[in-house]
What we know:
Layout: H1 7-36, H2 41-48, H3 52-69, E1 75-81, E2 87-96, H4 99-108, H5 114-127
Antiparallel strand pairs: 1-2
Amino acid sequence: MPKSTTRREHRANRRTLRAALRRRAAETRLTASVRRRPRSLATVAIAAGVDRTTAAGLANGLRSVAKRLGVAPAETARTRRTVHGGRATRTHTVAHYSLPQVRTLVAAYRPRKADYVAARALVAALAA
Length: 128
């Protein structure tokens, strides 16, 4: 006969489930926002499911491709956010690219590092 859960265990389980639900909802909102309007390249990579450090490196590579192809960002914005989730000490000008532009950049991007190859596949799937 299975043991019934105590009140403390039940609260802990519900707390874990609520945290998972909040995380999934945040991921869904981020992905929808990337599809709706231009965002930074790092944000697009994070929305595709790439971890933050790889997303920063991937964004650098995509910016190099954009410079080579002459793709201008769809809009620029001033932000105090950092890629790592903290607060920056001063504002930065951030280039936002639309999803069709990201699609063009990803098609021309040829990474060598295995992490970036996998990240490119995830971003390509999001942009498609």
